[in-house]
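TICKET #2291
ISSUE: user wants both folds in one file
ATTACHMENT 1:
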Amino acid sequence: KPPQGTSPGGGVNQIPAEATVCGDMRITPFYKVQAAFDALKGYVADLNADISQLPSRGPCSKYVLEQDGLVGKLEVRMIGAPYSGIACKLDTPGHHALVAATKSVLGEAKPYSLTGSLPLVYELQQEGFDLQIVGYGLMRTYHAKNEYGLLSDFEDGFNILSRVIQNINDNAE
């Protein structure tokens, strides 16, 4: 998604002394968020070591104004706690039960992956729980302004989850 930018007020013909750009990092679950952020801080430090190396738009567009003793600076910081992504394990009893239940209700199972973060779910997985993430709405309306789902899809989801429980109970006996 596009970043958000702000700068202090002033005339439209004034270049502000500072500007803020906010965005987010979407890290796949195979990387550690802190390691990615540390790498980003390293790239920013490299740029700040000689900010004049950044491309500009001609002799009047500069990041270093020697006559005024001004040097541009980039800063990166994390706002709030980081969220870690999760990759569901495909070789667990929970996954096998979910696939079998989905096939029995829908006739087929097509596992797929999305990016996103569910911090509590990730923490539970790190503690050893067999976690699978499912959704039974319409992907084309997922996070849309008019997001909706069909009751028939939720009925299928309920039946699938009921069979997951049954499959796991049957295998535990």
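ATTACHMENT 2:
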Amino acid sequence: GADEAEAAIQPPKAPAVLELSGSATLAERLGGEAAVTAAVDLFYKKVLCDDALSPFFEGVDMERQKAHQIAFMTAAFGDGVYTGRSMAEAHAKLIQERGLNEQHFDLVAGHLVEALHELGARDDLVDEVV
């Protein structure tokens, strides 16, 4: 009947995953908290092996730092609320007293990109992160 004819001209319904992707947060599209945690772990391994960056982390409780970074990234990527200091506040002392500059931030961003790619993140998601 008419219902069958109407059904025949309707486009097929998209799978649920595709429906979700339009409204999913960046954190969800990256793989959720587990993926963010893996990225932060690998990211800090890279940062701490970088002679230009590792001195900034001397004396830092890295487990606390990682937990802070996971909370920040998860919130920045749309899942949750970050209640810590702003980027400017968190790095002000390092900028003023230790010479942290844009080149250091570029190195950090490069390590984050590398970590995300090594964990299999798609280029479009990595671009969105950066």
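RESOLUTION: both attachments delivered.
EXTRA DETAIL ON ATTACHMENT 2: The radius of gyration is 20 Å.
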